[in-house]
Amino acid sequence: MNQIRSRTALVVACLLYSSAAFAEPSEQPSDRVHAAQLTPIKPDPTSVKKPAFQLYLESDIPVLAVSAVLTSARLLRSTPPQCRMLDDHCDPAELNAFDRHFAGTWRPGWTAYSNYGFAALTVGSATLLMIDEGPLSALNDAVVVAESAFVATALPSMTTLATSRPRPYTYGSRAPLTERQSGNASLSFISSHTSVSFAVATSMFIATKRLHPNSALPWLTLGIGLAGATSIASARVLAGQHFPTDVFSGAVIGASVGVIIPSLHELPVQVGPAAAGKGLSLSGNF
After folding, report:
1. Domain spans, the chain
2. pTM exceeding 0.90
3. Which of 153, 177, 217, 275 is the most buried (most CB within 10 A)?
4. Coil, strand or helix at 24
């Protein structure tokens, strides 16, 4: 019995010695937390004027990449709209009473307006940041605005592909038959033009609010941005590209994402092992 106990004690001692040999005695829990911190991206450390947002290498690049992939999925849609047919178009009777008023709409001129308005809103936002902050800081903050836009496109894209709702012009004969039978014709819900426009408008408001907290510029930026986003959403309906429920849903998602994404870019956000060495801890300002 004594020999068994001695051997057991020897085995335990060897195991303890081995684990101690592979460990790093000088490493403290605080060192591990420091090593697990996110890597900040600093566009110009010598600049006195700081950008509105703090980017992190380990979080912002993956978010942009995943959002871009999810957004590109809508480009692969090739299946024509699936609906109850009436002659050579979808039957408006399958629509709800509110959206039914816009069935069969087809005005290509309003489609062009929405595209030009969308381009003007995004280019104007980038120009405002450039004038206000200079190239490097503007690029830093533009990444966050772009991230909001990508996420505001990725989320509706998944819903759009899942629902495959036919666009309004498929419920009439005004649009060319090739348009009505294309894969693009079944991407009505949700309006990505609208979601991105509202995301840019709200994220630009937060950016200018941080840069000029006591100025009227943020509110002016918000007013112009929301007016532009609303006109783009209205144009999508007038063009026959989307129903009112499509653009309303896009506005809700876009405005929400445009607030959430920039709000997650305050200092600091840290993820690392807990002080006791067990589990993970999350700390930061949101």
Report:
1. 64-74+89-263
2. no
3. 153
4. coil
Q: Chain-centre distance of CA 241, in angstroms?
A: 22
Q: Measured between alpha carbons, how far is residue 194 from residues 170, 207, 225, 236 in Å?
A: 20, 20, 12, 8
- pLDDT per residue of the chain (286 residues) written in tens, 0 to 9: 445 455 555 544 554 454 444 444 555 555 554 545 789 888 877 776 789 999 999 999 999 999 999 999 888 888 889 999 998 899 999 999 999 999 999 999 999 999 999 999 999 999 999 999 999 999 999 999 999 999 999 999 999 999 999 999 999 999 999 999 999 999 999 999 999 999 999 999 999 999 999 999 999 999 999 999 999 999 999 999 999 999 999 999 999 999 999 999 974 434 444 444 455 454 444 3
| Rounded alpha-carbon distances, angstroms, from residue 20 to 13, 27, 28, 31, 273 | 11, 12, 14, 18, 20
